[in-house]
C-alpha cells in the first residue's frame, strides 16, 4: 500500500511539474472559443488547434427549441430554395452532408439536392434567410460549429458571423431558417445527429 501511495505521489508531482513547464508565457496554446481539444503530447513550438466537433458524414440538424429538423422546402434542384424546419420523417431532404474544409468551417450540403446551405444575397443583416445554393466555395457557404456542450451547437456563418436561427423562435412546421446575432437562445441551438 505504501508503495502504491509513493508511486501515486511521484506521478502527481511529475504531472504538476510538466503542467507548470508547459504554461510558460513564451508557449502558445490556441483553442477556439468554447471548443475543447485534448491531446497527450504537445511540443513547445506547436499551436494546439481544436479537433473538429464532428467527423465528416451525413447528419440531421435538429433545432433544440422546436425538436424539428432542417429540410429543403420545395423545388429541390433550384438555387434559392428555402431551408425550413419540419417534423422529422427521416427523408433524404432532411439529411445533410457535413464536410470539414480544414479552415475551421464546414460545408453543409443537402443530400437530396446536392446544394449547400447559404445566406440570401450574402447578407450581413439579422433575419436574412438561409437557403440552398450551388457550391462555389464562398465564405457565405461556410459554417463554423461552436460547441455549447451537451451535444448542442451554434452554426455560425463564415461571412456574417451571425448564427443559424429559426424565424421568431417558432416551433411550427414550415418556418424558415435565418441568421441572427448570437444570443444563445434555444432557437439558435442545434443537435447534429447521425442520419
TrEMBL record:
Q: Which InterPro entries match?
A: Ricin_B-like_lectins, Ricin_B_lectin
Stretches assigned to the Ricin B lectin domain: 56-193
Q: Which SUPFAM superfamilies match?
A: Ricin B-like lectins
Q: Does the keyword Ribonucleoprotein apply?
A: no
Which range is the signal sequence, renumbered to this chain? 1-25
User: What keywords is this UniProt entry annotated with?
Assistant: Signal
Q: What is this protein called?
A: Ricin B lectin domain-containing protein
**Organism (species):** Chitinophaga flava
Amino acid at each position: 500500500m505504501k508503495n502504491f501511495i509513493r508511486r501515486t505521489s511521484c506521478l502527481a508531482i511529475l504531472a504538476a511539474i510538466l503542467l507548470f513547464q508547459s504554461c510558460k508565457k513564451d508557449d502558445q496554446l490556441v483553442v477556439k472559443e468554447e471548443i475543447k481539444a485534448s491531446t497527450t503530447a504537445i511540443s513547445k513550438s506547436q499551436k494546439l488547434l481544436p479537433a473538429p466537433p464532428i467527423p465528416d458524414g451525413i447528419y440531421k440538424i435538429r433545432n433544440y427549441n422546436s425538436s424539428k429538423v432542417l429540410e429543403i422546402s420545395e423545388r429541390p434542384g433550384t438555387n434559392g430554395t428555402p431551408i425550413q424546419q419540419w417534423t422529422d420523417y427521416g427523408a433524404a431532404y432532411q439529411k445533410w452532408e457535413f464536410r470539414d474544409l480544414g479552415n475551421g468551417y464546414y460545408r453543409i450540403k443537402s443530400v437530396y439536392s446536392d446544394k449547400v446551405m447559404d445566406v440570401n444575397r450574402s447578407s450581413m443583416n439579422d433575419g436574412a434567410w438561409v437557403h440552398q445554393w450551388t457550391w462555389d466555395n464562398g465564405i457565405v457557404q461556410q459554417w463554423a460549429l461552436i460547441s455549447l456542450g451537451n451535444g448542442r451547437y451554434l452554426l455560425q456563418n463564415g461571412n456574417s458571423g451571425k448564427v443559424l436561427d429559426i424565424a421568431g423562435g417558432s416551433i411550427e412546421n414550415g418556418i424558415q431558417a435565418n441568421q441572427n446575432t448570437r444570443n444563445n437562445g434555444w432557437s439558435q441551438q442545434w443537435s447534429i445527429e447521425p442520419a
